[in-house]
Amino acid sequence: MRLKSTFGRVAVSACALLFLVSSTSVANASHGRECATPSIDRLQQWIASGEGATEPATGSILVPRGRHDYSAKIKFLADDWAVMVVWLGNKFEAEADLTDSRGFWMTYRATSDLYIQLRPASFWSGGDKWVTKVPSTGGKLVQRFFSFKTKNWTYLPALGKPSYPFSEALDDARGLVFVGNTKNDLEFRSLEIDGYRPPCVY
Length: 202
What we know:
six-stranded antiparallel β-sheet; 3 helices; 35% strand
């Protein structure tokens, strides 16, 4: 019951964080690879959701890496569920149609295994989502491809079985939600989704 209650609050946390991490500047679509404000592969919203013990606890996890590049860094501090969110359309209300996408390349390092939930706008709340495993890299930086083939996605019994097919998650994808229940030191350098170009909105 505790797990489902924790994940049931992620939507409320995400909505609240919209006001914390968004800018008042006019939306500006970059002509270059990245956006005018910090981003990784044009994804501007990498967020510590406030669910579970993390460092930082809330807000953006983007940090400078060199003069023009950024990394997303977060630590899961306890052997209990923690959450990190990436909004695919760079704002909470946005959706992305990934039905024709093969998957995504991600460059990351992790000291423990964790999972990615593909959360659709129509079923955003709760922990009962389709997930794919993100293997530990032993703290080394690696690049891996994560396929959107249905056979590569499952669910975690502790969090519940989704009431919708995986194809529906691809149709109106709102975010990639990273979840784990072990201590973890995480860094993300790239996350490039096949066939999808995120809009720069801040």
